[in-house]
């Protein structure tokens, strides 16, 4: 295991102490692309901050490549690359200089730093922008420079904290390609995100985290399969559902339809989980119409669906 987290807990003291991380245990295999998925404030960034020696845990232990990050932070940092949520490029340096000086900081000779900088500029398609200032870069280009700089010293683990935050869709896809390419260098990647598409697209395994705790952990495909449904119907009613009465009757009748695996109340109607969409739509419409069906949407299970089933609320709430 390249990353080992045991009983991790972080409490910020005060008049009302805040428990940011509440007993996290997880293991990440070497070469794996591992994601922490959860809403803002779930404890993802605090977990990454402890793993990268930027914060101290209240209790628990974190080891990176076998090194305890609290007992030996300087040694642990040699195996760690970090791309934080916000742009931390040195604005007084060019793109090339940001990477070059990082190499020197980690003990490269001047020649080795020059060669490594050239390699990374080419790898991340930044050669033509080598002399540009960070202020001249788009968000996507700046993020690629930050990733290039973070792996310049050839770390064993790269931590990415909300890598897609603020990026447009095209830049996000380019960043995903850059992250996938790190596999060829044998770099383990641990990322935090609240974008379900990002976790689904990139990660071998995902831990869904909320209120500082890991709720469930598995591959994206296994988590989506755990819903027990291949199709989800979102039924919006003309009258908002209330406890009891007509809504309970609708839930009962729809739940009795063949192929339906579950039904639950939502803020605007009901959500129906089904094994497939084959032939079921007309039956759902026929059943729901007398109850004031206003609209209906059909989707497939996503990681957000898993989060909703676990917490009862949307991922971005």
Characterization of this structure:
A hairpin with a 2-residue loop joins strand 9 and strand 10. The protein starts with a strand and ends in a 6-residue tail after the last helix. With 317 residues, it is of the alpha/beta class. The chain has two domains: 220 residues, P-loop containing nucleotide triphosphate hydrolases (Rossmann fold, 3-Layer(aba) Sandwich); 73 residues, 2-Layer Sandwich (Alpha-Beta Plaits), CATH 3.30.70.920. The longest helix has 14 residues. It is elongated. The protein contains eleven helices and 14 strands. The model has no long low-confidence stretch (mean pLDDT 92). A six-stranded mixed beta sheet has the order 6-7-8-3-9-10, with helices on both faces. A four-stranded antiparallel beta sheet has the order 2-1-4-5.
Helix-strand blueprint:
Blueprint: E1 3-12, E2 18-28, E3 33-37, H1 44-51, E4 59-64, E5 67-68, H2 73-77, E6 80-83, H3 95-105, H4 110-123, H5 139-150, E7 157-161, H6 169-181, E8 188-193, H7 196-202, E9 205-210, E10 213-218, H8 220-225, E11 231-237, H9 245-255, E12 260-265, E13 269-274, H10 281-288, E14 293-299, H11 303-311
Parallel strand pairs: 3-8, 3-9, 6-7, 7-8
Antiparallel strand pairs: 1-2, 1-4, 4-5, 9-10, 11-13, 11-14, 12-13
Helix pairs in contact: 3-4, 3-5, 5-6
């Amino acid at each position: 295991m390249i990353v080992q987290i045991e009983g991790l807990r972080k409490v910020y003291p005060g008049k009302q102490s805040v428990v940011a991380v509440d007993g996290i245990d997880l293991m990440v295999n070497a070469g794996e692309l591992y994601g922490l998925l959860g809403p803002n404030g779930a404890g993802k960034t605090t977990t990454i901050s402890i793993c990268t020696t930027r914060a101290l845990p209240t209790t628990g232990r974190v080891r990176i490549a076998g090194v305890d990050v609290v007992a030996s932070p300087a040694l642990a940092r040699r195996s760690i690359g970090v791309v934080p949520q916000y742009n931390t490029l040195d604005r007084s340096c060019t793109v090339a200089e940001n990477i070059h000086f990082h190499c020197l900081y980690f003990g490269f000779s001047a020649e080795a730093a020059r060669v490594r900088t050239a390699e990374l500029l080419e790898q991340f398609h930044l050669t033509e922008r080598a002399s540009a200032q960070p202020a001249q870069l788009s968000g996507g280009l700046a993020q690629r420079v930050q990733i290039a700089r973070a792996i310049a010293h050839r770390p064993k683990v790269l931590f990415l904290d909300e890598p897609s935050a603020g990026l447009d869709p095209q830049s996000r896809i380019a960043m995903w390609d850059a992250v996938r390419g790190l596999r060829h260098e044998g770099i383990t990647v641990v990322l935090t995100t609240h974008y379900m598409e990002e976790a689904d697209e990139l990660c071998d395994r995902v831990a869904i985290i909320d209120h500082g705790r890991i709720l469930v952990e598995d591959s994206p495909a296994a988590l989506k399969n755990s819903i027990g449904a291949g199709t989800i119907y979102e039924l919006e009613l003309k009258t908002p559902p209330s406890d009891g009465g007509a809504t309970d009757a609708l839930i009962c009748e729809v739940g009795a339809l063949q192929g339906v695996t579950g039904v639950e109340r939502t803020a605007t109607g009901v959500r129906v989980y089904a094994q497939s969409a084959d032939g079921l739509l007309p039956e759902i419409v026929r059943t729901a119409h007398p109850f004031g069906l206003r609209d209906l949407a059909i989707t497939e299970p996503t990681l957000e669906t898993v989060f909703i089933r676990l917490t009862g609320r949307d991922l971005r709430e």
